[in-house]
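Sanity check

After download, print the first record. It should look like this:
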Amino acid sequence: MNYGSSGIQNKRKTLSLPIDALFPTMRLPSRACEVWTTSGMDTLENCNDAQHFQAYPYPIEYRYNSRGFRDQEWPDTFDHVIWCVGDSFTVGIGSPLEHTWCYLLQQRTSLRTINVSMDGASNAWISRRACEILASGLAQRMVIQWSYTHRRESLDLDHVIEQRWQAFYRDVRDQSWPVTVSWQNLDQLPAEILREIQQDPYFQEITCVHDEERRIDIPERQAVLDPTLNTVNFTQCVQQVWAEQGHCDIVHSFIPDFSADADIHAVIQSWPPERKSIPEIQRLDWARDHHHYDLLTAAKLTQDICNLLTL
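Expected structure tokens:
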């Protein structure tokens, strides 16, 4: 799946950005301070219905803050805010910002919402980010929209590092240098070339693999071989959040078609009553990419959230 742009060139633009002391790793560098008109599935080439895409009547702009989230700059204090954590449905891929549930929730409650979302995010990423926020003790209210259960984060990053190295090497290579060299064989370069490369400030970035580059979908055959795999993974992610919840008021919600798996549906149904959750959202309309939902669905979700959230 096409989740959007990332790479060494984008990293060069954001390298000098200051990193806040609070939540220093909660950043998506390839999106920091970017303004896009398309993203991921929301392109004519990648959308599910080209005719719908071309007929979509609203202009769309993806404006990302310095942390790389589709949001304003974060406030100086986190009193009276609602943290919104999720994947592309929370980003609002295919919709104007004003059609997204985070924006509508802010308008309806008059409380600042903080959008922490990434298209292609796995539930492990969502859980980790939610737990990081909860562990800070700064969260009073949070809404989580859980993602597809087949998504994972790559633990083997050698392939990602090799791709980034090759892109970097092509960019800095002098015509007199070897045409190709792998990351693993870096020490085979002549000493003077190696010194020049290592002095480049962007060389140090090659092994700093960010969340955007760790996104993977688990192979379907693996899920067939072990039908409990996705259920166990999702359950672990939720339990990690519950373990950090403290006094934070959390509402759990789910993307369309989330509980098509009977086992997943049974897990959610078994949650104790004090765990606030909204039944899986049903699409009432389509975003421009004809995959995500748009304003009507987001408005219904916002109403459901407000019915459960302590305001």
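If your output differs, re-run the checksum step. Summary of this record's structure: The first strand starts at residue 35 and ends at 36.
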